[in-house]
Amino acid sequence: MSEKHLQTGDALPPYGGKLRLFAMRFCPYAERTVLVMNAKNLQYDTVFVNLDHKPEWLLNYSPKGTVPALEYEEGKGIFDSNIINVYLDEKYPDVPLQSTDPLRRAEDKIIVELFSGVQSAFYTAAYNSHALQANMVETYHKGLVALQDTLRARGTKFLHGATPGLVDFTLFPFLERFEALPLVGKSEFELVKSKYELLVNYIEAMKIVPAVKLYYLSPETHAKFIESRNKGDANYNMLDTSGVCCMRPRKKKE
Q1: Residue ranges of the GST N-terminal domain (predicted)?
Q2: Which residues contact 159 (CB under 8 A, 6 or more apart)?
Q3: Is the distance from CB of 49 to CB of 22 less than 8 angstroms?
Q4: 92-130 residue pLDDT tens
Q5: pLDDT at 247
Q6: Hey, is 13 helix, strand or coil?
Q7: Helix runs in the chain, H state only
Q8: Fewest beta carbons within 10 Å, which of 36, 194, 221, 253?
Q9: Ramachandran class of 83: left when φ > 0, alpha when ψ lies in -120 to 50, beta otherwise
Q10: Burial class (CB in 10 A: 0-12, 13-18, 19+), 112
Q11: pTM of the predicted model, to two decimals?
Q12: Which residue among the candidates 6, 27, 49, 199 is catalytic per the annotation?
């Protein structure tokens, strides 16, 4: 398996006849869709792209030049993780990832919306630290406390219930990366277990979910990528060992 990121001038690999995801290996938004596809045991290929030097054909599937983008039929694509993931959950209902209760689905969307401030604080801390302000640290921790309170109120192992669902797979890619912040000198963002015991236990439970375990990267790996990007030379291919194109088959859906 290769995790080489294709860039400007590289040819688009031939279409393999199944779902194809355009992603960047260190992008939390792309990871959201990977986790959903894994959880649904879908068969798909992955093409990783260099977002600093984007291949020209990416715009055919994502007019904004962002990832993830999903090629659902040859030459036809949709983009944005939230749009893709709802589409996948409705198109492939055998492993449902959303509640059948409209109110619970709305509440899950509110959880994700309220978490956006935490995500913004993370990006500032990781990639624009000179702009970091005290109120951003406060926003970050308030958001984590609110998420922990929601977990406590629901009283289930995961936000979705006994098993993780769309809301869990939407938030976890960021929680995965938060653990890298102290490793890049941002100790004020640490998830101290004495304060976040329930949340830390939730994160640890998510790490061993099969859909997550297939794609999870350690805090040390995320820290290395953050450092490389901040030096002006993001090392997109730090995980690639094969030197061949990154077509990544998934287990065939039964």
Answers
A1: 17-96
A2: 108, 111, 150, 151, 165, 167, 168, 171
A3: yes
A4: 999 999 999 999 999 999 999 999 999 999 999 999 999
A5: 35
A6: coil
A7: 28-39, 81-91, 102-114, 116-127, 134-154, 166-178, 193-207, 210-213, 219-230
A8: 194
A9: alpha
A10: middle
A11: 0.93
A12: 27
CATH 1.20.1050.10 fits 102-213, yes or no: yes
Please state the domain extents for the chain. Answer: 102-213
Q: Among 1-15, 111-125, 186-200, where is mean pLDDT lowest?
A: 1-15
Q: Strands 44-49, 19-23: parallel, antiparallel or unpaired by DSSP?
A: parallel
Whether 246 sits among the annotated catalytic residues: the reply is no
The answer to whether the CB of 239 falls within 8 A of the CB of 25 is yes
Helix extents (H) in 25-165: 28-39, 81-91, 102-114, 116-127, 134-154
Cis peptide before 96 (omega within 30 of 0): no
**At a CB cut-off of 8 Å and minimum separation 6, what does 168 contact?**
158, 159, 160, 206
Q: Which two tokens stand for residue 1?
A: 């398996």
